[in-house]
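Contributing new complexes? Match this layout with 3,4-dihydroxyphenylalanine.
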Amino acid sequence: MSEIKKIKDQYFSQLNKSLDQNKLNEIKTELFGKNGIITIKFKQLGSVPEEKRKNYASEINLLKNELQELILKKNEEILNQEINKKLKNDNIDITLPGRTYYTGKIHPVSQVIDEVTSIFSEIGFSVEEGPDIENEYYNFSALNTPENHPARDMHDTFYINHSKDLLLRTHTSPVQIRTMLKGKPPFKIIAPGRTYRHDSDQTHSPMFHQLEGLHIDKNINMGHLKGCLYYFVKKFFEVDKVKIRFRPSHFPFTEPSAEVDIGYKIQDGKIKIGEGDKWLEILGCGMVHPNVLKNVKVNPKKYQGYAFGVGIDRLAMLKYGINDLRAFFESDIRWLEFHGFDPLDIPTNYRGLSR
Ligand code: DAH
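Output block (do not edit by hand):
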């Protein structure tokens, strides 16, 4: 019996037995692997005497094709067997309810930070951030706040140490100082962030959020401040007409200073912004005090501008009709399910504070 015939008989009988995938792979390697029987036969072709070579070559070629065909057939057979086995053994209970999956929600505060940031970035403000733990200088002194100012009191401010030089920032205004110290005018920035005060009731929480705004350039006046805030309020509350009132006030870091109220009314138990004759305070603002500019080495004779500080949580309560501030920070997942936002609806190029 010729060698080729021997190989054929041997492997045909092996391949016709019932095999599993592993065994089939083994046979494949034995035949066609790097040192496989057929591979070697092809390699040896050159040493076959010329007159026999043609015949021999066509014989192995034929054998190769037959074996490959058989392997393919076997492969298919094994796959089918596996599928049939699965279908027979796996009981799929199609009456079982599908798995529910849970999508997280965006907290209203994060949502509002995103909205507000997006509105201001459209009119040229860039975003700055500062640390929650501040020193006394950035939080008070550089902002022209006198030594005996009530805000510095232990009853208002959380101090980190006894010497009172480290504290949890009471407002985002120190970011004004940090920004101006590290750069050169003009400045046009907003700074969202967490702030802390010794306060807790329905509308005050010891930790809350503010957004600071600062615009310093050569010819900035109070008209720019008003224009900017009108634009913001209309965009944020999505109303065309809005009643705004600038009420004279006092902040050590601005002169003159104002507090801004917006007009609203309650209709069918819901708050309507921009109509009615009630007023609600939403922010503090003013023209940056010359002393503040001097403290950061900006010449107040050449440069001036406005600043403002908005309560972000307040904006969220107003726009989305949430009436207890404390619930914002109680981490009740059911509250978040109800008041939170779909993650895919975030409107902007900016996503929340860095954590
Ligand atoms: N920092 C003030 C506060 O927390 C708010 C504020 C008022 C910020 C006037 C400003 C400003 O930048 O110009 O009550």
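Reviewers usually confirm one structural detail per submission. For this one: The two ends are 80 Å apart (CA to CA).
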